[in-house]
Amino acid sequence: MDRRKGKEIRVCVEERKKLLTELPTGLVMEILSWLPLKSLLNCRCVCKTWLQIISDFHFAKLHLSRSAVSILIHNLYPCIQARYLRLYQIVKALDSGFIQIEEMVLGPRLNLPEYEFSRNVDLVNSCNGLVCLHEFGMRDLLYVCNPVLGEFITINVPEGGNKTRKAFCLGFSPKSNQYKVLQTFYANGAGPIAEVYTVGTGSWTSLGNAPISIFEHRSFDAYLHGAFHWVTYSDDGNSKGQIVCFDFEKDMFGEVPLFQFPCGRARITFLNLGVIEDCLCVCGYPDYDFNHFEIWVMKDYGVKESWTMQFRIKHKSLSYAFSDWFYPLILLKNGRMLMSYGDEMIVCYNLKKKRFRETTIRRTVDSFGFDIVAYTPCFVSLKDVAKGEHISR
User: Fold this and answer.
1) For the sheet containing 307-314, what is the strand order?
2) Is 20 helix (H, G, I), strand (E, B) or coil?
3) Which of 151, 205, 207, 272 would give a disulfide with 327, using CB separation of 3.0 to 4.6 Å?
């Protein structure tokens, strides 16, 4: 009896395998493109056919268009932690409030470059599925990599001219399908000066003087409509009411108008830029009032009058973190919002009940904090988008 049951189970499993492998390629591609990252990595090991499908350039583009924004964290110290990136992907967000988050640890050799001096590595940003890292100190190198596939290219940062306050930003031009790296710096007391590197050309192009230095102008996700965005500040640290952007298609700086403050209102402090539901947003504390912070959304990109205050949230000091401010990361479909608390902890805010809840995503005990960027996991190979470059694995 037991043998018969065992035989029936084996036959059933074989029939299911046969059914899956005999599905039309287009249908298999459609099904696989909706799976989360860990499941897709497992599917690559099922059979050669599925591996070929997932490795196909058309599948990579389809999957990227559906891949949800995830959280990529780089702990600053200690030295051993600085060698790794941690990826957190939201797999489920139910109306009940349950949120399933999958963690992946990305390390050297398998996912990332093997740094010579690991403590001098900076997570710059991510754009359209690729990640930019900066190794500085004894060497001055940029890495553009796909940590999912373990591929990367190495870019030498131009030397000379007594350059200081160097800063970088990875971007993507949808029309030309090219990745680019923007650099701003000061040289011999002059600046800021801008240069751009187009992946695949092997060379930097000077853009002359820049309206802003992007040094220390970080944000979780400020890439929208082919441009990256920064907010400008005055000498006292307050925002000037100006958003500068760089268009990676035209290689030009521009300006996006910020909202007009109501009469009697002071400027917003601790201003952070982001993207919520495909709209540019700003978050900050108005009138030097640290009891509340506001999130404004630009409903119609480029139109000053379309700025709307979408959320006004009461500030709450939490345990664990040294720094005491919030800014939004991801707005979930179940009425929750993931936020960064002092770049040391990720919290979940219930928009309806107006309550914060701590998550398990936080800096390590012996770390000073972390860099955090938005990352969209993808299977786009650098062999397809970085032709002409030396690609390492």
Assistant:
1) 268-276, 279-286, 292-298, 307-314
2) helix
3) 272
Under DSSP, the state recorded for 260 is P
Query: Mind listing the pLDDT tens digit for each residue in 171-200?
Result: 999 888 899 999 999 988 787 999 999 999
- What is the CA 72 to chain-centroid distance, rounded? 6
> Which pLDDT score, from 0 to 100, does residue 172 have?
94
Domains belonging to the chain, first-starting first, are 2-59 (no CATH), 67-385 (2.120.10.80)
pTM of the model: 0.87
Phi and psi at 201, nearest 5°, equal -95, -25
C-alpha 210/C-alpha 185 separation (Å) is: 9
| Distances 290 to 1, 183, 264, 353 between C-alpha atoms, Å | 72, 34, 17, 21
CA angle 383, 63, 121 (to 5 degrees): 55
- Both tokens of 63, joined, read 């999957």
Give per-residue pLDDT as tens, 198-218.
999 989 999 999 988 887 677
In sequence order, the β-bridge partners of residue 151 are 146
Residue 260: other Cβ atoms inside 10 A: 11
